Amino acid sequence: MSASPCVRIHEIYDCIQGESTLTGMPCTLVRLAGCPLNCSYCDTPDAIPFDSGEWMTIDAIVAEVRMRNRPLTLVSGGEPLAQKACAGLLSALADVAPLLQLETSGALDITGLHPAVRRIIDIKTPDSGEEARNRWQNIEHLKAGDEVKFVLCTRSDYDWALHTLDRLGDALRAGIPVLFSPVESSLPATDLAEWILQDRPPVRMQLQMHKHIWGPEAMHV
Ligand code: SF4
Fold this sequence. Notes:
Blueprint: E1 6-16, E2 26-32, E3 54-57, H1 58-68, E4 72-76, H2 86-94, E5 99-104, E6 117-122, E7 147-152, H3 155-164, H4 169-173, E8 178-182, H5 189-199, E9 204-205, H6 209-214
Parallel strand pairs: 2-4, 4-5, 5-6, 6-7, 7-8, 8-9
Antiparallel strand pairs: 1-2, 1-3
Iron/sulfur cluster is lined by residues 35, 37-39, 42, 44, 48, 77-79, 105.
């Protein structure tokens, strides 16, 4: 019998999903260690080093998720896809998780994952400092259940995002939700709300619910 592959895990805990169209669902968050990006607004900097956290076997992670028995499992990071064993972890979790989301930076290839995985891909804006990392080929692989998220730092990020919606044409026509989320320390939610109401882009606005529950220092999921 071969040993279960290992994944570097930063932490596993229960929370309320604070983002995406599944906001508000009780959730087990599986946070993988390591990220090759360095976004200006990153609120999980402790998870950026690839040597943070500890190795766990996929079998042990699945057992932990099964024991927690939540309706939603979210695999996040760091950048989970930066670890080669992530695809195997997602396939194993798909067998035990009623709903399974993956939060990814959008910088790495999202193809080849278990079809049950609902992928939430970021589009990195200029003020994130990581615009050059966007892997635009990912857009053509989006399917029902996936979502696209822009985290906006400033008015100029918002204007850039409006312009960038043109690049999402087929995904938008297919009904893939597009989420605009303000960096709450630099972009007042009221400003973003008013801009969206005025300009009528085909997007949803979201706030980070977990920060309203557990305070502004609560980690980004
Ligand atoms: S991709 Fe996510 S984890 Fe990585 S630096 Fe950006 S916000 Fe932080």
